[in-house]
Amino acid sequence: MSTHSEIKRITTHTLQELKRKGEKIACLTSYDYSMAKIVDGAGVEVILVGDSASNVMAGHETTLPITVDNMIYHAQAVVKAVSRALVVVDLPFGSYQGNSEEALRSAIRIMKESGGHAVKLEGGIEVKESIVRILSAGIPVMGHLGLTPQSIYKFGTYAVRAKEEEEAAQLIENAKMLDEVGCFGVVLEKIPADLAKRVTESVSIPTIGIGAGPHCDGQILVVHDMLGINKEFSPRFLRRYADLHSIMTDAVRNYTKDVKSSDFPNEKESY
Ligand code: KIV
């Protein structure tokens, strides 16, 4: 029987090693204890406590409203559940863009108060100073390029990014910068597959794609989307592995019916 202490934890070095060996890296989001327990137990290497919690947990239209306190709340629950995966926590909008001192303070709060293993933030050269400062405190940093949802009001649309060569070249430069300063990985969101391939071949760190094609070193999806809990969100890049929306709806309907008909609880379910 395996015990807790026998489980080999995934580290940033493990991810580097997986890239070197050509073994793909499986990543998913989680925001609470029960889901994280399932996701970790099923064997993904990275669990991202994404600021997508703003959408799927809090019901906001964008990721902008979520706070550092909210992220810490979600990450604490995830960290308690996880015994193997690397837990990466998103720095939310407004917690690192102002200046590098504020960025470091936010990252330290997240690491200290949640017990997460690393932070992720969005952007390239414009946040380089913040990234370097966070790294200098010994905190592992993951980058995020392409469609960066915290900049949705600048983009004006969730359409594919970097289709034109100018933006593509800039994205490659930013990826190289993230590699050079010491980030341990980079998420590439909603960019052409060919560009993701060029980035993956240009950097030594693992690239993790979402809507970025098959050539990335790993893949990530929002767990509620891939489990089919959300019905409304159907981008081309999403593969649904379950239809939990129907399963859960049927279960709740049946429960309601049983309560109303006094079928539940029965004698065996009573004391
Ligand atoms: O917040 C999030 O879930 C993310 C992933 C989509 C990469 O950043």
Task: Describe the protein in words.
The structure is a single chain. The chain is of the alpha/beta class and about 270 residues long. It folds into two domains: about 5-240, TIM Barrel (Alpha-Beta Barrel); about 245-270, no CATH class. Helices cover about 40% and strands about 15% of the residues. It has helices spanning about 10-20, 35-40, 55, 70-80, 100-115, 130-135, 150-155, 165-180, 195-200, 225, 245-260, and strands at about 25-30, 45-50, 85-90, 120, 140-145, 185-190, 205-210, 220. An eight-stranded parallel β-barrel has the order 1-2-3-4-5-6-7-8, surrounded by seven helices. α5 (about 100-115) packs across α6. The longest helix is centred in the middle third of the chain and has 17 residues, at about 165-180. Bound molecules: 3-methyl-2-oxobutanoic acid (KIV). The site of 3-methyl-2-oxobutanoic acid has 10 residues, from loops. Catalyzes the reversible reaction in which hydroxymethyl group from 5,10-methylenetetrahydrofolate is transferred onto alpha-ketoisovalerate to form ketopantoate.
